[in-house]
Amino acid sequence: MSSDNGYGRIPSQISRSEMLPLPPRVSLGGSSQPPVARGRRSLAIAVALFMLTLLSTLAAGVQFAADYANGQAPSFDDFLSPYLAIFTEPRVLLAGIPFSFTLISILLAHELGHYFACRYYSISASYPYFLPAPTLFGTLGAFIRIRSPIINRKALFDVGLAGPVVGFLLAMPALAIAIAYSKVVPAAQAGSPVIFGDPLLARLLITWLRPGVLPRDLLLHPVGRAAWVGLFATALNLLPAGQFDGGHILYSVASERHRLISLGVALLLLPLAKWWSGWLVWAALILLLGFRHPPLLNRWEPLDNKRLVWAAIAIVIFVLCFMPVPITLVEK
Question: What's the count of helices (H) and strands (E) in the chain, helices before strands?
């Protein structure tokens, strides 16, 4: 996104910090470290976390690759073995490259969208921090820290929107290519302990690229599963509440309705927890942390029509990515 003028740029002497990403959080306070030393430390931490996340997503990708090669849905019966292979047989991790590199690229693109939007408006921001974890997907996502206030609605809107849009533009073709080349296995997820939901975008692409194939019969390639994770993360980030990316967009469009809509979103997520318990976590995050939004230095200047159109596009992206039941765990 671009600005019509330099009005949204931040004076370098102002310092305050907040979190933009997923999960939402706020970090206030300055640092006594010189800017150069702080920048080097931030870069070192970012690189270390990136490398750890690369390893953990490679390990997760090994399981997806093995199950896909065997013509079966992800089983995760031997969930920890790929993670142990990091130390015992690192060559095995090569099989996880399609999943890992796709997912890392989508997450990195998302965070760099935020980062470069911040740079454009002279907003102080950290490098992207990845969160490695021995989970189903090998990561809990990524985030950047914003260390200075945002001056007006245009800057807030552009920073909030840039990440989801860039991530989506990378995830969509990755999913399309994967769907075009994925295997057709009747009742592919039948008997699997983990059943993945189908976002609207996936259903549309399957109808277009694989006519006559039902979503439940398509065994998604690991590249497609990584794109699925990227779409899921995009939907979570675009929830119009709190300090999620969608919350920033909402605040820039209608700051006076931010608290009420945030509350409504949290309450709407609660009944969905009947089918996926993870919604309880997100509802709790909104209720506990999300109602407060850092004020803008100039909250009176309205958004232009171009950005209102982009706000509508953000809603479309959210609808294409959102899944009421993203994951179902089946007891054997």
Answer: 10, 8
Closest CA to 286 of 254, 229, 247: 247
Q: Is 267 helix (H, G, I), strand (E, B) or coil?
A: helix
Which stretches does DSSP call E strand in the chain? 18-19, 129-132, 139-143, 145-146, 183-184, 194-196, 218-219, 327-329
Cis peptide before 240 (omega within 30 of 0): no
Q: Where are the domains of the chain?
A: 14-329
16: nearest Cα among 124, 174, 162? 124
> Closest Cα partner for 142 from 57, 245, 22, 58?
22
Structure-token match 């490098």, residue found: 127
Query: Considering Cα of 269, then 275, then 279, then 283, what sign does the dihedral take?
Result: positive
pLDDT at 31 (0 to 100): 44
Please count the CA atoms within 13 angstroms of the CA of 211 that sit on its side-chain side. 1
Q: Rounded to a whole number, what is the largest CA-CA distance in the chain?
A: 63
Rg (CA), the chain: 20
The model's pLDDT over 241-279, given as tens digits with 9 standing for 90+, comes to: 998 999 999 999 999 999 999 999 999 999 999 999 999
Nearest CA to 172 out of 316, 7, 22 is that of 316
Sequence-separated (6 or more) residues with CB below 8 Å from residue 105: 170
* Total-model pTM: 0.86
For strands 139-143 and 129-132, give the pairing.
antiparallel
